[in-house]
Here is the input.
Amino acid sequence: MQPSCCPLFRSGPHTLSTFKPTSHEPVCLPLLGLQTEITAMHSTGLYWIHADSRATAMRLGLALIAAQSAAAQMLLIDNDALGRKIVEHLPAASGPARLDLWQLDAGKTSTIARWLVRDLDRILQQRPDLIVLSLNMTGPHVSDPAELATSLASLAGWLQARGCLMLVISHGQAAGLETRLFQMGHRVHGFAMLADRGNIYLYKLSYWCNRSGVFSQLEYALDWQSAETRFTLACGQPPQLPSSSTDQDQVLAMSPVMEGEPAPSSNWHLFEAFDALADQAMRAYSATLLLSVQQTDDIIPLARWLFQLRLSRGSHIKVVVREMATCLRYADEHLLLSAGTNLIIPFGASFGRVQTMIESVQGQLWPASPYRQVEELLEQYQPPSAAGLVSEAGFMLQLQKLRLGSPSQRLNHVLLRLQPKAGIDLETAIRQFTVKRRGDMICTSGDQAYLFLYACRANGIERALQNLFRLSWHDLFDRPESLDLTYFLEHGFSSAPEGRMPGHPGRKATNLPLTASTADNRPLPLRPRPMTTDSRGAL
Here is the structure.
């Protein structure tokens, strides 16, 4: 960050600047969790936010500048040195690479609009993406905040003519400010107030106009995240916008999901490219999105996009994901559901069944996510980095990273204690273990083996054991015992007899009734096996 500081505005020869336009996306307020309709601004014009204190104004300005990209062109103007303080607290490697910092001569505050027009026309050679004007409304040279607001509102015509966007962040005295600005709504595109209420910040939007329409009389509770330098919606609850019209009957679908079937009605809109559907989804309110997943590599990018969709569009949109090939595991399904999916349709369902399942989610509201960042969500569903045969210490270390205490963790994991059959050496039995996926680990302690199956349902244990051992596990081990994972992490390994956990004589491990033949110790059913003969025809 290299602030370029011009100490004072000074009057000078008036020369009209021809600004060089810059290509930039619409600027949004840094209020994570609020939809873009109420945070986006027009590319030109005047917006105003009044803070209840200098500290609140500083945090808003800090969040706004930190949220801009390195390529953004910004100009920060103040009348009480708040701009310099904002720059000093700006985190490294955040915000624009260059920020022009100007200070307004306090003696000219009463005629601010005239001096701003004169000096901006004289100095600026390139149109900035955003001009931020920080104003102390209780300064000695501000006799009437309402009159000052009127003076600044006269800037609107100049900003429109020059293609510039200005956001005024004021603090201090605000008597009559809201009423005066509301009367000049044709000149000021938006006005809001931000107030510190102790544990939260109250954001009251009086009115806000942009390309999505006009919104008024909205109120939200915000949290200040100092580590991320931003405001976020309190409690993670997506806000709901008042809407006079709804798109709840509309279905936005990827063409591959249809499998050659025609659109059932005119309410169905098909898209060949995901980018086209994503653009339309970001303007939807309560439509149904029908998406596809065809391979494992699609899962993480889709989860990231769904997370951002929910932050921007709230909980009324219905998201249905259709599995086009067998690629979703138990953990993958939970990841997509936690990221924003209402329903997952498994591979093999007919298109008629797909239509029925889409009808079943109509009217649903997606529950609020406990995660504030997508990386936090993805990390929650990452399996342990180890796999296969590990040491006792490594086994315990990997299990301790599972975040079992997290209230949002809904995955089931399985921990089994395996006792080799009589006459079978433990090392020999372990050699039959094959690694199938990350997170499935086995270790030995004494004369027993401990097997951890990541993201495994209880009814999937039998199949998992069949896949993990080259020989039938029935021939290698006695009936496995399912151990309580939390208790195991507290007390460690044990070779206690009779399935009892160490140090807790009343707590037993669970014997698993995996199949009818193993549950009652009846002989296993006979299975055919391939045989060959030698050149003489002998077996």
About this structure: Confidence is low (pLDDT under 50) at residues 1-24, 495-527, 534-539. The first strand starts at residue 2 and ends at 6. The longest helix spans residues 299-313. The CA atoms of residues 320 and 343 lie 5 Å apart.
